[in-house]
Design brief:
The complex is a heterodimer of chains A (266) and B (678). Chain A is of the alpha/beta class. In chain A, 34% of the residues lie in helices and 26% in strands. In chain A, the strands form three sheets. Chain A has a six-stranded mixed sheet, sandwiched between helices. Chain A has a four-stranded antiparallel sheet with strand order 2-1-4-5, with helices on one face. Chain A has a two-stranded antiparallel sheet with strand order 11-12. In chain A, α3 packs parallel to α6, α5 packs antiparallel against α6 and α6 runs parallel beside α7. With 678 residues, chain B is mainly alpha-helical. A two-stranded antiparallel ribbon of chain B has the order 1-2. In chain B, a hairpin with a 2-residue loop joins β1 and β2. Classes of the chains: A alpha/beta (266), B mainly alpha (678). Chains A and B meet through α2, β6 and α4 of A and α22 and α23 of B.
């Protein structure tokens, strides 16, 4: 049932005419978009623009509204929960409390979609857990209690759990929202490295346009439930486009050393 | 991840402000409210007027004028005043705790006051020179302090407050029942009074309630501005220069005094304090000033109308229903009605920051625990007591005693194991350390089924009694599952649904109990968990149920591992969320129903055992389950042994004894964890 052959050909997610309303407000207003596989896509936009709603739809965390979503050409709702969890891993914005669980135990939970309720936790599962710990650099505190870690370390551990899930697509809802700037860079570098090494598709919500421009291959900007801009960072980091996204006069500056572009409000 | 209490408290305040409207809208709301009140008042006056008319027309009654003047009229006034006082208390509590479900009955305040009066009358009938009101107030205050202390660490998160209130209320009720049971016949009337009868013999209660209500209302009116500020979160209100702790304490005290004096005068009356302020808010009145007027008026009228209906039924049937129990019957459905309004109450990251240690080698502790249980079982089988002291049964005595002791011990241990297992499931499923099968309502429904059977056919055998209890539990379970499905299986709402069910069953039970007599004593004995004799068949049933449910849960341990992470993470991991929760809830409820047959509906084991296992360091689901079951077995074995030995030659009910162990544990937990988050 998993179609590996035509993976690269079909879009990762294909959305057509997505509309979501709640409490008399339109949260998403006719989104049509193709997310390409194997790329890191940043989802940006002001508060209330519908970023999280869209991501929750993609992660099947919310009941779908109007419109159609296809995942690798298949109807999103038709995939079984376990099969979906094997292919898509989702990190919620607020990671839940873990109540005394150790790092290793939490990461091992990522294997649930593979071994299920009664299956054996076998050698392959153990291998995947070790690999996830190694790749995220969390092996050193595998025996520690998750709640005792710092914010940045904890976010790494959750990423390790997502990796152990062995899904080809990661959906990350503001993974850096509670982190200081050094740890933001740290986590996003890790996300990019993981994506590149494993050929993963990543869709990540980011608050900071400059972080998105620096770490993402594509950027999709939402405003009032619609897509207001999309494209590579170079295409989005322009004064007129930024003004459209944020409704502010924005200036841009190309950094001399790296060639990165940063935007700032004027 | 900690969530700052401020932002959560902010969302809590939201539902109450849902009906934001412009000033012209406010006027329309006020008009609508006035119409409703006029209607209620008209109906209430009509019903009471009919009652008075009927009495005056009753030519055979020689004292009919006196009855009207000194019984019926004061009764109407008491209904108005009590309803108003309870609504005012409810409105203050809801405001102060930012919890739309707070009320004298959901906080256990009323049950605490009731217990204090029952205990005082049982042990010191002259009340040691204190007035009945002072005793009631002390009880109310103790219960409120316990509930709030239990939930202070969770920043008074609304669901937790209600769950803790339910637990404290349950213990108080079962302790009162036990006192009534042992106090003999003369205290049974107290139990009826616990149902909240509004019958009056003079104007005394009307006067004293009226004066207290007027004073309390004036005080509350003086505190109007702080009340408005309390809608903000603590940081916000504190930032505006409000001495939060002092204001909050003052308002809480005021509410407790009000509720306590109502209990002292007329007994426990549920629902009104919960309903009236919420109804007023649903009608669009939202400022504290409007609520301060509207809630007491509405509450008084609701109680007046209810009492009118109850009197009308009484005249028709000569039942003498207690009004309080009838109003409480309405509480269940009303709580369910409120559930959808609580959408802002998602306990995101409500977990505490401190992480209990986790054991490196849980099996070693498990072996130790199992050893302790075996020792307790042996002690329970061979230890006895006679006039001279402790007696060890020899082999010859043992053959004689075993048929008596073994079934009972097996039954209570199986009951403890099942309660512990369901408690473990519920605590993991809702990520709420206060969740326990006692609040599921299933055992309440089982009691109701049993009570109905005893009432309908007092001579029916054990099979019929067990069958009807099981039927009651089954119906309760079905209702619970329906509620849970409607509430999208969200942990906190499931708990509230269970509480509503429990309140409904409890009120029904009180109505049945008001008939008094031998049946009432039988039901009382069962409520307190008096398992002095256990049928071997029942013991076998309990053991089989325990083994089956524990085996099933052990197989489902992986679900239990993932569920504490919350719905979002569980969904992301591909867990069949709805199915998993339904299956687990069904197993927990079935196990609770069966255990209720052996240890009675209240014992606290389901709360304590998983909690103890958790703090002993059993983190993983399988370890947690095994630890809880072992501790549950041990607790019940210990309670069984002690209940036979301590009060020789009498035997304490095992369930009650277990809750007597549980209550200090709860209090200890409060004292130990007294944190800065108040």
């Amino acid at each position: 049932m998993r179609r590996h052959a035509d993976r690269s050909a079909t879009a990762l997610f294909e959305l057509a005419g997505i509309r979501v309303e709640a409490g008399g407000r339109t949260l998403l207003d006719g989104i049509t978009h193709r997310f390409a596989p194997g790329r890191i896509c940043g989802l940006i936009g002001p508060n209330g623009s519908g970023k999280s709603t869209l991501m929750r739809l993609l992660a099947r965390q919310a009941p779908s509204g109007l419109g159609r979503i296809r995942f690798h050409g298949e109807d999103l709702a038709a995939i079984s929960p376990r099969e979906f969890a094997r292919q898509v891993a989702y990190l919620p914005q607020f990671t839940p409390p873990t109540d005394g669980m150790r790092v290793e135990e939490l990461v091992a939970l990522g294997r649930f979609p593979w071994h299920g309720l009664l299956g054996r936790f076998g050698a392959r599962d153990r291998e995947k857990v070790d690999e996830a710990l190694r790749r995220t650099g969390t092996g050193a505190f595998r025996g520690r209690v998750v709640a005792s870690l710092s914010g940045g370390e904890r976010q790494r551990v959750w990423l390790a759990m997502l990796l152990a899930q062995d899904a080809a697509c990661l959906l990350l809802d503001e993974p850096t929202s509670a982190l200081d700037i050094a740890h933001q860079i740290d986590v996003l570098s890790l996300v990019r490295a993981l994506g590149r090494e494993g050929g993963l598709s990543v869709i990540v919500i980011l608050h900071d346009i400059n972080m998105a421009a620096r770490f993402c291959d594509d950027i999709v900007a939402l405003g009032h439930g619609r897509i207001v801009a999309q494209g590579t960072p170079d295409a989005v980091m322009r004064e007129d486009v930024l003004a459209r996204i944020y409704g502010l006069r924005m200036g841009i500056h190309r950094l001399p050393g790296t060639g990165d572009v940063v935007g700032y409000p004027l | 991840m900690t969530c700052d209490p401020g932002s959560r408290a902010g969302t809590v305040a939201d539902p109450s402000r849902a009906g934001c409207a412009s000033p012209p809208g406010d006027r329309a709301h006020a008009l609508r409210f006035a119409c409703l009140c006029a209607g209620l008042a008209g109906l209430g006056a009509l019903l009471h007027g009919l009652g008075i008319r009927a009495m005056l027309d009753d030519a055979s009654h020689p004292l009919r004028d006196l009855v009207v003047l000194h019984s019926l009229l004061p009764r109407a006034i008491v209904a108005l005043a009590a309803g108003a006082a309870l609504s005012l208390a409810g409105m203050l509590l809801q405001r102060v705790l930012r919890n739309p479900l707070a009320d004298a009955s959901t906080l256990g305040v009323a049950a605490g006051a009731h217990l204090a009066i029952v205990a005082a009358l049982a042990f010191a009938p002259d009340l040691g020179g204190l007035s009945r009101e002072a005793v009631a107030f002390a009880g109310a205050l103790a219960a409120a302090a316990l509930v709030l202390g239990l939930t202070a660490r969770q920043a008074f998160e609304p669901t937790s407050v209600v769950v803790a209130g339910m637990l404290v209320g349950l213990v108080c009720a079962s302790a009162s029942a036990a006192l009534v049971l042992y106090g003999g016949q003369y205290l049974t009337s107290l139990f009826l009074w616990g149902g909240g009868s509004l019958a009056q013999q003079d104007w005394g209660p009307a006067e004293s309630l009226g004066i207290r209500l007027a004073l309390a209302w004036l005080l509350a009116a003086l505190l109007l501005r702080p009340l408005a500020l309390l809608a903000l979160d603590d940081a916000g209100a504190g930032g505006l220069g409000l001495p939060i702790a002092r204001i909050r304490t003052a308002l809480l005290l005021l509410a407790v005094v009000l509720a306590g004096s109502v209990v002292a005068q007329v007994g426990v009356i549920g629902f009104v304090g919960l309903a009236a302020p919420n109804l007023a808010r649903m009608l669009g009145l939202r400022t504290p000033r409007a609520l301060l007027v509207a809630a007491p008026v509405l509450g008084g009228l609701i109680l007046l109308l209810t009492d009118g209906i109850v009197q009308a039924i009484d005249r028709g049937s000569r039942l003498a229903l207690p009004t309080g129990a009838v109003t409480a019957l309405l509480a269940g459905p009303f709580l369910l009605l409120l559930l959808p309004r609580l959408s802002g109450l998602r306990p995101i990251a409500s977990g505490t920051t401190h992480a209990p240690r986790s054991l490196a080698k849980p099996w070693r502790s498990l072996i130790l625990l199992a050893g302790a249980v075996v020792v307790l079982v042996l002690a329970g089988l061979v230890l006895g007591r006679d006039r001279t002291g402790l007696v060890l049964a020899g082999p010859s005595d043992l053959a004689l005693l075993l048929p008596w002791r073994l079934p009972r011990l097996a039954a209570v241990m199986a009951g403890g194991a099942m309660l512990a297992a369901s408690g473990c499931v519920l605590q993991r499923m809702t990520a709420n350390p206060l969740a326990s099968p006692e609040v599921l309502g299933v055992s309440g429904a089982a009691s109701f089924g049993l009570a109905t059977c005893i009432l309908a056919a007092p001579a029916a055998g054990l099979a019929a009694q067990v069958g009807s209890a099981a039927l009651g539990a089954g119906i309760g379970l079905a209702a619970l599952l329906a509620v849970a499905r409607r509430a999208a299986l969200q942990g906190s709402r499931m708990l509230l649904g269970g509480i509503a069910l429990g309140a409904l069953a409890g009120a029904g039970l009180t109505v049945i109990m008001t008939r008094g007599g031998l049946e009432a004593a039988m039901i009382l004995a069962w409520i307190t968990g008096a398992s002095t004799q256990v049928d071997p068949a029942l013991a076998r049933l309990a053991v089989a149920g325990a083994l089956a449910s524990i085996a099933a849960l052990a197989l489902l341990a992986r679900w239990l591992d993932v569920l504490p992470l919350g719905d979002s993470a569980a969904l992301a991991l591909g867990l069949p969320l709805g199915r998993a929760k339904l299956v687990l809830l069904t197993i927990a409820a079935l196990a609770t129903g069966v255990s209720a047959l052996t240890v009675g509906p209240v014992s606290f084991v389901g709360l304590m055992a998983p909690h103890l296992a958790r703090s002993a360091g059993f983190v993983g689901a399988r370890g947690h389950l095994a630890g809880s079951v072992a501790i549950g077995c041990g607790l019940m074995a210990g309670a069984d042994l002690l209940s036979r030995l301590v009060f020789y030659p009498y035997q304490m009910p095992v369930g009650l004894f277990a809750s007597l162990i549980g209550a200090p544990y709860l209090i200890g937990a409060v004292l130990r964890k007294a944190g800065p988050r108040c």
